[in-house]
Amino acid sequence: xxxxxxxxxxxxxxxxxxxxxxxxxxxxxRDHLSLSSRPLKGFVFLQGGEEQTRYCTDHAxxxxxxxxxxxxxxxxxxxxxxxxDIETGESILFAPRLPEDxxxxxxxxxxxxxxxxxxxxxxxxxxDESATVLHDRFQGSGKPLLFLLxxxxxxxxxxxxxxxxxxxxxFKTDMSTLHPILTExxxxxxxxxxxxxxxxxxxxxxxxxEVMRKTKVGTKEYQLESMFLHHTYMYGxxxxxxxxxxCATGENSSVLHYGHAAAPNDRTxxxxxxxxxxxxxxxxxxGSDITCSFPVNGKFTSDQGLVYNAVLGAHDAVISSMxxxxxxxxxxxxxxxxxxxxxxxxxxxxxxxDDMMVERxxxxxxxHGLGHFLGIDTHDPGGYLKGATRPSTSGLKALRTSRELQExxxxxxxxxxxxxxxxxxxAMESSSASKFFNCEEIGRFKGFGGVRIESDVxxxxxxxxxxxxxxxxxxxxxxVMAGGPWPLKKxxxxxxxxxxx
Length: 501
Ligand SMILES: [Mn+2]
Fold this sequence. Notes:
Keywords: Dipeptidase, Hydrolase, Manganese, Metal-binding, Metalloprotease, Protease. Residues 13-157 form the Aminopeptidase P N-terminal domain. By secondary structure, the protein is of the alpha+beta class. The protein has helices at residues 16-35, 67-73, 102-105, 112-119, 130-137, 178-187, 191-214, 221-236, 302-321, 328-345, 353-358, 362-365, 421-429, 439-443, 474-481; strands at 43-47, 81-85, 91-95, 123-126, 145-147, 172-174, 240-241, 246-249, 274-279, 281-283, 286-287, 290-295, 410-413, 416-418, 450-452, 455-459, 464-466.
């Protein structure tokens, strides 16, 4: 009998998770205000995401909550506001007052008590009551103070939108205190947050294995995407992905963000291609970010194995070294060094690896950063603390964080090695770097594309745990693609360190 298509089912969503998040923020904010001798009064006030339509039409885009609002309140509906009373810790949701014909087109209009119970908040009012409610509840003299969310996202360079509502002029507003404190709360994950990220990883890992098994020459890239989406939605209840699927094969696998509208995963798989599939499902806002690379025909050639093992060596070495206190910049350099050593061993490069490091040759083969925080956003915020500066050298400047690891961080480990003409040709022609290249050997890799191996890793007290469970060794991949079982057995769980998982 064929094995069941999935061993998983969607777990219950714990709304206490958001209660814990709110308590964490309230404590951090109170500590911060006490330290600067400011009164412990006022409200955190956030505006949730608004429903959007497609351009000028009435086609409603599928709504996904704004991430900071999701973190604090877990609300899945659009057009809410939320407040936390800093003095009492009480939480207040403000729901939109819906028009009568909502009940005809969109379903029953829920009473406020419904939201109070579902989201476990202290009270619920309508959004048009927010100014009055906050004024009435404020226990102080003068205008009540609102802590609004305003700050830079260091990955997008965009700013979060501070709440705006009718009557805001009746309040004092603080636009600078909340953002760094709330962002820092999001960096360290609670047990409940880790459990959701683990489920997103489990269902996505299973889907990756499913796709790997069904990949064959002649398949379209979008069919791989489709199989992944089906599996994570059908068996995991994941309606959203953390990001747009990258299903790159052949030369496309050196296009780092392939899969966008202008390159929509539409190539036909050829014999001899490598596939690079970067796909991750999201469950109750919390995401996963996983990349598998493998040969389309199920059998590694020696060149494919050379590049793949260079990247796997970097991936495993980083995971073996990760623990609290370790610098992420050092981990990036470790990955670069192992990739360069492997390329030298494979005769693609010649000379001293230390000299290559000085020349920043690692960035020619891996132009992106080693990894990023993961949570409610794929590139979860907090990579650069206020005042922190980005490294400026090539490769390192692409890092989405330069911080030291701390217990409770979830960060992706995603080394890669790509043959990108736009980087390789200038480097091979440069007066200082050309001496390192064995042009004849590298010529064989024209059109190869690239390899990336990406796992989601939780930093623990004394080490880390790899939350991603997919075949990684070349022999494991070949066995699974030939129809073998996955997981093989418990002992194959090699990529963790420090204590038990
Ligand atoms: Mn990633």
